[in-house]
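Subject: for your reference before the review

Hello V.,

The reviewers asked for a structural picture of the protein, and I figured it would be easier to keep everything in one thread rather than splitting it across files. Below is the amino acid sequence we used in the manuscript, unchanged from the supplementary table.
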Amino acid sequence: MSEDSGDTEFSDELRVKMLMASAKYYLSRGGFLPSLERTIKDIIEKAEKEGKPWAFYLKSHGLKKGFLGYTQDLEEAYQYILKHNIPY
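And here is what came back from the structure prediction:
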């Protein structure tokens, strides 16, 4: 799918879902690929800049729990959730 097709939101969302499924596979075997976390975080940050609602939710969840390439920071998560009116 090209970026000009207008389906980039679906593509990014689908990529995150596939990467999360891969992460569950690696975690279930006792490991995790740091590059996978970086890739997920990059996709989330790109979608956040484009104003995609799912990206704001995933970033807040990553900040709250300390995964998806984010360091756990409850205060930052709280402020981010308030700033972006994320229903949590």
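For the response letter, the relevant points are probably these. Residues 7-83 form one domain. The two ends are 33 Å apart (CA to CA).

Happy to draft the paragraph if you're swamped.

O.
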